[in-house]
Amino acid sequence: MGISSMIGQNALISIVSHIFFIGISFYALQAIMFEKVFKKNHVFQIQLLFILLSIAIGSTVSNFFLTFTGWSSQLPYLFE
Predict the structure, then answer these.
(1) What single string gives the DSSP state of each residue in 8-46?
(2) More confident residue, 78 or 35
(3) Which spans are transmembrane here (predicted)?
């Protein structure tokens, strides 16, 4: 397996991971009643904040997951 295909696989895994965790964050944030915290008749702003929070939380969790997975795969080198 060439290095270019490994880089491509890594990129695909990262994209899928980010999308997955952003989707989970979006789903989880739906449990919060944002309408009671913000001004009335500002639906677009609430939805935009909802999306931005989902991206921020999902990307952070995905980065943690990918970094942790990378570190875990490097542990065997400790015992060589």
Answers:
(1) HHHHHHHHHHHHHHHHHHHHHHTTS-GGGTSPTT-HHHH
(2) 78
(3) 12-34, 46-71
